Recover the amino acids of this structure.
């Protein structure tokens, strides 16, 4: 059986799908790395909503996907960028997601960390921004989850310089009940975050970021770096205080960064580990045995898919993530909160399908092929 797929020039080409998936089974948590998958949300396809409406979430399917990730030993990074925070999922929906997912995590013994931001306000004074952060931090802590202090669009707009970041984050870290993960999300993921940490110069911004950590090392479990710059991440992790982890958020260079070098390694908190979950888990378990070569042999071939999903404009990677979840049978439809299923082109979907199928990511290749053909037919591509 073959399938006709359009390329970037609009030309149809013949692709022969694979017949068997990779044999990947659930397993135990990891011993050498702490690994989170930032998980997507599943929309309710029957909700009568518009892109401007509050998110309508299919809670059963959303929580089932998290159980899938936990079953493979992965932690879940909840209510983060991958869950469409600020791109379809508002704070009310995120708070409900945090409460439900944390309760589910406690029930199955899964690890969970949840995003804390300021998206319940569009802007404001520094005092109002701190209050917004505090409100969300309280929700996460009351749910019994670890907090991830996310970058704030409101703070990026209001801050006059590095001192405002030092003051705001210092205030939050002093009152956090448990060590948190600090998240540096680059402007390729969210253009509104340009100049975060008080400067568009990344060296200066890094200095401020490290100053925040150095002042409160007992309150920082680790940092998540999403700058898509492997050399900068390696330099940054070498400058961290003892005991503070680096969680890579680099969806371009993650095999190299997780494998590490003679001076250390990165843990992981990655959106690409949503579609790669079982394969990524298998690779990390190989790494747990000390087999770096085997780890790279499993994970290096996935980089092509990740770079495709995260190509510019990078913030629309969520569309590809949900598309692959639909093809893999984790949800019954390809609808997204905010209508974001329209954010990528048909050639983009076709290439994502081909790359994922080549990796053996689909538990049922026939189902994935059938669904891909259904999508193609909606665009007028008949097989």
């Amino acid at each position: 059986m073959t399938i006709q797929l359009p390329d970037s020039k609009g030309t149809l080409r013949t692709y022969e799908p694979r017949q068997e998936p990779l044999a990947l089974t659930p397993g135990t948590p990891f011993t050498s790395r702490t690994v989170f998958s930032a998980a997507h949300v599943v929309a309710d396809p029957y909700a009568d909503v518009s892109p401007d409406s509050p998110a309508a979430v299919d809670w059963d399917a959303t929580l089932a996907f998290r159980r899938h990730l936990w079953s493979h030993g992965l932690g879940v990074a909840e209510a983060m960028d991958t869950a469409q925070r600020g791109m379809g999922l508002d704070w009310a929906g995120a708070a409900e997601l945090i409460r439900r997912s944390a309760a589910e995590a406690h029930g199955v013994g899964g690890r969970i960390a949840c995003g804390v931001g300021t998206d319940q306000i569009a802007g404001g004074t520094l005092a109002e921004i701190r209050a917004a952060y505090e409100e969300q931090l309280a929700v996460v802590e009351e749910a019994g989850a670890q907090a991830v202090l996310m970058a704030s669009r409101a703070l990026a707009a209001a801050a006059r310089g590095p001192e405002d970041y030092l003051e705001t984050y210092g205030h939050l870290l002093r009152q956090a009940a448990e060590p948190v993960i600090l998240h540096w999300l680059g402007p390729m993921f969210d253009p509104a975050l340009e100049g975060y940490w008080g400067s568009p110069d990344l060296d200066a911004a890094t200095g401020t970021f490290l100053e925040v950590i150095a002042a409160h090392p007992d309150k920082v479990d680790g940092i998540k770096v999403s700058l898509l710059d492997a050399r900068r991440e390696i330099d940054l992790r070498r400058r961290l205080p003892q005991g503070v982890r680096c969680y890579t958020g680099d969806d371009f260079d993650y095999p190299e960064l997780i494998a590490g070098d003679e001076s250390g390694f990165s843990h992981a908190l990655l959106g690409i580990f949503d579609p790669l979950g079982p394969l990524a888990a298998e690779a990390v378990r190989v790494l747990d045995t000390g087999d770096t070569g085997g780890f790279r042999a499993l994970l290096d071939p996935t980089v092509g898919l990740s770079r495709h999903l995260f190509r510019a404009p990078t913030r629309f990677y969520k569309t590809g993530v949900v598309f692959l979840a639909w093809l893999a049978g984790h949800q019954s439809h390809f609808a997204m909160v905010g209508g974001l299923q329209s954010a990528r082109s048909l050639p983009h979907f076709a290439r994502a399908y081909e790359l994922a199928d080549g990796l053996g990511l689909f538990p049922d290749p026939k189902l994935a092929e059938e669904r891909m053909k259904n999508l193609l037919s909606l665009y007028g591509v008949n097989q």
